[in-house]
Amino acid sequence: MKFDRNTILGIVILAALFFGYFFYTKKEQVAYQKNKAREEFVKDSIAKIGRPQTDTLLQRIDSAKADTINRTTNAGNFKDAANGTEQLVYADNELIKVAFTNKGGQPKWVRLKKFKGLDSNWVKLAGTDFDKISYTINTGSNKSAQTSELFFPKIDSVKNTDSSKTISFTLMSSDSSSITHKFTIRPDDYMIDFNVQMNGADKLLERNVTDNHSLDLNLNWQYSAIQQESSLSYEKQNTQVGYVKDGNFDFHTISRRTSKEFDKSVEWLGIRQRFFFAILVAKNNFSSGKMEWNVPSNDTNIIVQSTANMRVQVPVDSKAKVDFSIYYGPSDYKILKKYDMKFEKLVNLGQGMYQFVRPLNKFVILPIFDIMKNIMGSYGLAIALLTIFIRLLISPLTYSSYLSGAKMKLLRPEIATLKAKYGSDQQAMSMEQMKLFKQAGVNPLGGCIPALLQIPIFFALFSFFSSEIGLRGASFLWASDLSAPDKVIQWGSVPVISSILGDHLSLFTITAVITSFLISIYSMSMSPDQSNPVLKYMPYIFPVFLLFIFNRLPSALTWYYTVSNLITLALQFVILNYIIDHDKIMAKMEENRKKPKTKSKWQERMEQMQEQQKKMKGQQQKNRR
């Protein structure tokens, strides 16, 4: 890569994209947190005004009694199920362990056996008091209750012939209506089948207001995504809400909006928190509904809390069966793709303004990286091998860039002569320099193309390394987790410094910055002198920018950049000193000078425009005299 004017333009574009992305993301997060803090402050202030500062023991006892009476009253025909003792039933396969509770007949929590959490135990999903799956039922005349508040007394556990396991919870009413929740876990599968069976459905559910021939099951799904990675803020940046509506996939980052209404058929909706995914599927689709979510402050370990109120239409009958599926598992592209339901589209291989790099990740980076990983047996070495592969792929353009740089270096004396001749007349200097390049057969854009080509490659890898779950917990050299920064030095929360660099210093970031400096020094020694101080010093300033940008990024990415820079330095030295023959290049340039030159229409128009501007400038100077 040669740092001529056009190459530096490519670097500036890359820097602008970097800063634009991180500034926009940070700005949105700060604004969201400020609004959230203001809303919570107002709510808390109102609540404090409306209640005593302290509750007496008697008041708390009375409140508990009132809740019990109210719950029993609302339970109506299911009053025997209003109060009870919670019982847990466990089921598992090779991938997950699930605890089911008889309170609401629903999952209590899910453990992922292949992944360790921050506490070194299996990753736990859907395990807070906030998490629930429930729906409203009619319990009597003008009475209703949520199933999550009722205890299902009858519990059955069956091992099926296909090695799957089914856990059933049954709830009976005094008028012979019944509800059964069945959960089936299959071998080697993260998906849990969930079906609701009702006797007396026409009494338990309300009629649809627009379709008298159907009943409405209004499902309420609450899910709290708990922090699973070391960086809470980075995990929030990579957490999204996704769904398939009317056959089309769409998603929202949690910081850009707080709700989504559905007026058309919805197949599934879910929350992806960087490496883990919770998905609720309606096998016959939700007819409509709304999903809301909020992002708590960084004082908690909660990434996002979401509440989905979704409607399922059920034919009017005394008996009804509604089928769902729930996925609690990794956000792994290959695993999610097997379900053939567009789950994998929420894995960030390139989204939003970076959607253009998704095909590069899907069809090149992902399959090649899998091959490298299987060959090397190490994620760090696989990244190094992937880097070599990418550099070989673009090596023809790289060679073209170095060749262009060598030609530019040979033209240095003539360019210096033109500068001395035309002085500060930049327009005349530009015209003569273009003629010089044309005569010598030099393309001034030759050094820019590889720099611009690496922009989509970098953003493809940025998305890939941020979402590749295999990197989670993978160690290499001094990095204990390639999906997170390698924090060799940590200083905690320090004013100013923490806001710029974070709470640590990454050694792979330092190696990336140092190797970038070396490339800049070597390349500038091979390039024409720049009179513009901004262009002259930009190659040295850019590596400093990398320090602030890369320090918070996964060490897999900074390791890749380090290896790429080392390869660049080696290629520069070998190609420029042992492959490119400067004497032959000079002879070729002299031959080009002797050949008759034909101008393209674009060149003719440019020269005419420059000539016209030169005359106008001369006329203005005459008028001033």
Care to describe what's here?
The protein has two domains: 293 residues, Beta-galactosidase, Chain A, domain 5 (Distorted Sandwich), CATH 2.70.98; 240 residues, no CATH class. It is 45% helix and 26% strand. A nine-stranded antiparallel β-sheet has the order 7-8-9-10-20-17-16-13-14. Strands 5, 6, 11, 12, 15, 18 and 19 form a seven-stranded antiparallel β-sheet that branches. Strand 18 and strand 19 form a beta hairpin. The mean pLDDT is 82.
Total beta strand runs: 22
Number of domains: 2
Largest sheet: 9 strands, antiparallel
Q: Based on the structure given, which CATH architecture of the largest domain is correct?
A: Distorted Sandwich
What is the CA–CA distance across the termini? 47 Å
Strand content: 25-35%
Average predicted confidence as pLDDT: 82
Number of helices: 17
Regarding CATH, which class of the largest domain? Mainly Beta
Shape: elongated
Strand order across the largest sheet: 7-8-9-10-20-17-16-13-14
Radius of gyration: 32 Å
Helix content: 40-55%
CATH domain fold name of the largest domain: Beta-galactosidase, Chain A, domain 5
Which regions have little confidence, pLDDT < 50, spanning 5+ residues? none
* Helix/strand class: alpha+beta
